[in-house]
Amino acid sequence: MRGFRHWRWHLDEMYVRLNGEMVYLWRAVDHEGEVLESYVTKKRDKSAALRFMKKALKRHGQADKIVTDGLRSYPAAMKGLGNLERREMGHYLNNRAENSHLPLRRRERAMQRFRQMKSLQKFAAVHASLTNHFNSERHLVDRQTFKLRRSAALAEWQSLMA
């Protein structure tokens, strides 16, 4: 199932403060918790949701189901794209996306916040790729298999950076 991104997506937005002003980081997460797409905007409206969804769909293709929260920008944008029938919304359904914000918040706090939208966008993209590369779903495998996969991921990363 790893690398198969067409099953279920979870879309969510989170606010981030940049020099005292609020901006929104839109994120798409697949059913395994891997971050597919990140996009920073100043507004949280239909046009921002539409731009984000177009970007995600162009890069990753159609999803079978798209889980969102109650924000009304999502159905308005999905209606424009013609995939409103794929939307799912319900209590606790979007916890996958909400929990994927936590590592980013941790790094944000350690970095003492962000100063520019461009740096936030770059950081979100790089952080997502790093997290996806080293995420080996520890709770599903035994310790020995986890350590083998982790060392293989580190070796692959070092060969990429060399």
UniProtKB/TrEMBL annotation:
Keywords from the named record: DNA recombination, DNA-binding, Transposition
Any one GO molecular function term: DNA binding
Matches recorded under Gene3D superfamilies: Ribonuclease H-like superfamily/Ribonuclease H (3.30.420.10)
Residues covered by the DDE domain: 7-135
One Gene Ontology biological process: transposition
Keyword DNA-binding: yes
One family name in Pfam for this protein: DDE_Tnp_IS240
Top-level taxonomic group: Bacteria
Keyword DNA-binding: yes
PANTHER family hit by this protein: BLL1675 PROTEIN
Stated role: Involved in the transposition of the insertion sequence.
Name of the protein described by the UniProt record: Putative transposase
Species the sequence originates in: Caenibius tardaugens NBRC 16725
